[in-house]
Amino acid sequence: MSTETAAAGARVATPPPAGWEEARSRVYAVGLAAALPAVSRALADADAHTLAEPLTTRTDLPAFPTSSVDGWAVRGDGPWQVVGRVLAGHTPPPLAEDGTTVEIATGAMVPAGASAVLRIEESTRTPEGRVAGTPRPQPEWREPGEEAYAGEELLPAGTPVDPAVIGLAASCGHDTLRVRRQPRAALLVFGDELLTAGPPGAGRVRDALGPAVPAWLRRYGCQVRPSDVVGPVADTLPAHVAALRGALAGADLVCTTGGTMHGPVDHLHPTLEALGADYVVNTVAVRPGFPMLLARLVDPDGRVRFVAGLPGNPQSAIVALVSLVAPLLAGLQGRPMPVLPQVTLAEPVSGRGDYTHLALVRVDRATGTAHPLRHVGSAMLRGLAGADGFAVIRPGSSGEAGARVPVVPLPLTPGERSW
C-alpha cells in the first residue's frame, strides 16, 4: 500500500480549535523562528522589503553646516563687503575678516568664520555696494548632527521599507540596504466544481479565490508569479499530493483553497500527512473561517516551508488570510507582530458564543468609528469589497454600540503599514 493510499484512510477527528488570539501568536512565533535570510538590495529595489538590520547614519545629518535660506553668510557687524559666492555642492574658503560676506544659496555649506546668515529678502545694498541688514537672532542654518549623529540608529530591524525609508537611507549615504528576502508564495485551488472563466451556472461556481488570493499575498509582501497559481486541482488524493509537492519545491508558503474539513473529497489533511507535515494550527475558534489550518514542513537540510489551508468559502478564506497568513508572513519577514488598532462601533455587532467573531466593517478614520456592513455571509464577497477590515468581537461577548474593539485592517498596497 502506498503512503498516499495509507494516508487516505487515516482520517482522524479534528482536535479542539485553537483560540483566535492564541492561533495568531502561535503562527507568528513559528514564522519568526523561520525568518527568511538577509540579502542586499539596491535602494531602487528595496521597496516593500523589511529591514534586516537597523538603519544607521554613515555621517552626521547634515554632514556640515547647511544654509536654510538664500542670503548672505556674514562675519562680524555690517555693512559687509562682498568677497564671494557659495553654491550648493561646493566647499567655501573661511570668512577670515570681520565685515565681510559671501552670497549663499539654500543648502550650501556655511563657511567657517560666519557669525550669521542674513536672508536675501531682508538685505539691502549701500551706495558703496556693501550689504546691509539685521540678521534674525536664530541661526539660519542647520548644524551638523541636528537630525542625527554618525552611527545613530534611525530605524530598527523589522521596519517595512517604503519610499520614506528609502529616501532616509539615501540621505544617510547608503546605496544598498540589508533586507529580508521576500517570501515566495504559491496557491493551489481545490475543487472540481469551480469555473475559471465566464458566469456561474449549471451547478458550478466561479472561482473567486484563484484571482484574488495572489493579490492579497502580494499586499502582505509576497512574491507570487502567474505560474505559482495552480488549479482547479482534481479531487483525488494523488492529484493533491502531486500539486502540493510541486508547489513546495519553490515556495516558502503554499496557500490552498477548500478541502480543510474531512469530507469524502477533502484531501488536504491526508496530503499533509503523506508529505510529513506537522500542524501549527488545525482549526480556529473563529466565525467565519473556522476550518482553517497552518502546517509546517522541515526538510532534512533544515529548510522550513508552510502550508496555509484556507476554507473554500471566499470570505472565510480571507478571514483565514488575516488570521493566520498575515502574522506568519510578519514573522517570516522579521517584522513585529501586527498590533491591532482600536475602533468604536457605530452599531451593535453580535457575538458568536465561544468563537471570536470577525465582522466586516467600514472605518471612518477621521473619527475612528466602525460601521458594520451588509452582505457578509461566508460565501459572499460584496461586503468585503467595501470594507476596511474586521472588527474583533471576543468570545463570550457582543459588540455594543459605542464599544471599543480591536480591528484587523485589510492591506491596501504592497507592504503598507497598518492604519
TrEMBL record:
What are the UniProt keywords, alphabetically? Magnesium, Metal-binding, Molybdenum, Molybdenum cofactor biosynthesis, Transferase
Would the keyword Transferase be found if you checked this record's keyword annotation? Answer: yes
Write out the transmembrane intervals. none
User: Which EC number(s) does the record attach to this protein?
Assistant: 2.10.1.1
Looking at the record, the residues that make up the MoaB/Mog domain are 186-331
Required co-factor(s) are: Mg(2+)
Associated pathway: Cofactor biosynthesis; molybdopterin biosynthesis
SMART domains named among the record's database cross-references: MoCF_biosynth (SM00852)
The superkingdom listed in its UniProt entry is Bacteria
Q: Which InterPro entries would you find in this protein's record?
A: MoaB/Mog-like_dom_sf (IPR036425), MoaB/Mog_dom (IPR001453), MoeA-like (IPR038987), MoeA_C_domain_IV (IPR005111), MoeA_C_domain_IV_sf (IPR036688), MoeA_linker/N (IPR005110), MoeA_linker/N_sf (IPR036135)
Any one GO CC term of this protein is: cytosol
SUPFAM superfamilies associated with the record: MoeA C-terminal domain-like, MoeA N-terminal region -like, Molybdenum cofactor biosynthesis proteins
Enzyme's top EC category: transferase
List every stretch annotated Disordered: 124-144
Molecular function terms in GO for this entry? Answer: metal ion binding; molybdopterin molybdotransferase activity
Q: Which reaction does it catalyse?
A: adenylyl-molybdopterin + molybdate = Mo-molybdopterin + AMP + H(+)
**Keyword Glycoprotein appears in the UniProt entry:** no
Query: Which BP terms does GO give this entry?
Result: Mo-molybdopterin cofactor biosynthetic process
Q: What does this protein do?
A: Catalyzes the insertion of molybdate into adenylated molybdopterin with the concomitant release of AMP.
Homology family? Belongs to the MoeA family.
Which protein are we looking at? Answer: Molybdopterin molybdenumtransferase
Q: What is the species of this protein?
A: Micromonospora auratinigra
